[in-house]
Amino acid sequence: MVSKEELLAMLQRCSEEESHAIRVYAQNADNPLFLSNLKSEEQTRVKELLLHLKRESESHIKTYRQLISTVEASEQDVF
Amino acid sequence: MFSKRDYIQYFEQVACLERKMIYRVTDMLGVVEDPYVCGVLKGLGADAMRRYSLLSDLLQSKSFSESAADKRLVNRRSALGKVRLIFKERGLFKELSAYCVNFSHQGLCFESEHRVEAGARFEVRISLFDQCEPIRSVGKVVWVKEALPGFYLAGMQFES
After folding, report:
1. Across the interface, do B2 and A76 touch by the CB < 8 Å criterion?
2. Please, which residues have CB within 8 angstroms of residue B83's CB and are 6 or more apart in sequence?
3. Contact in structure between B155 and B100 (CB atoms under 8 Å)
4. Which candidate from B1, B3, B37 shows the least CB-CB separation from A67?
């Protein structure tokens, strides 16, 4: 069992880490030199993977925010 | 210009971020009992495991692997889990919590928010996420590096 306050702090931390991950996934997206040493098909594979990770993290942030709202609105003190 | 080493460092950082997500969700699942919250967290945890698997495959692909390092890692089993680092200080047993990244019969790679020193000796108890029986050993830390700010990756060599 965990208190509402502790759970909210943990969920908030996860949401912040997903936000940080998005910045890391996107940090080289606009740099034409990034991946230029790789073969064309490998570049495509890597770019698609980073884009996929970024989109999923955006979706995860929404999930965490919804969960935070649900927990905040709940009358339970422990979860 | 980006070198192969730059790519590897960048994707190792990304992989470390994903592992951190897995640890956070697993830690929450260890204490939360509410079925609705557990259900949502299990979905997020499964996503994080799948994403980490994609990154591991990329890092092991021909374009990203480093031959010398790969030889050393041949017998390492990539396995995530919890690690308890037990040590004695002024006659009292103390412990630090860490997470297993991979291990072999010779050693262990772990990461933690606690910075351990190279040369430090610990009794280790490894509880893998996909295995019930804990693994016990004793080892010495041989290298440490900061993988992410405030998050340290370390290599340990087993003595037994």
Report:
1. no
2. B97, B98, B99, B100, B108, B110, B112, B124, B125, B126, B127
3. no
4. B37
> Which residues in chain A are closer than 8 Å to B39, comparing Cβ atoms?
none
The ipTM estimated for the assembled molecules is 0.91
State the pTM of this model.
0.89
pLDDT of residue B41 exceeding 90, the answer is yes
CB pairs under 8 A between A and B: 78
Q: What is the pLDDT of residues B75-88, one digit of tens each?
A: 566 789 999 999 99
Q: Give the pLDDT confidence of B56-71 residue by residue, as tens digits.
A: 988 888 777 765 455 5
Dihedral pair phi/psi, residue A70, rounded to 5°: -65, -45
- Residue B76: strand pairing partners: none
Average pLDDT along chain B: 90
- Token output for B77: 């089993």
Type of residue found at B34:
D
Nearest to A62 by CA among B34, B44, B37, B39: B44
Is B2 in the A-facing interface, judged by CB distances under 8 Å?
Answer: yes
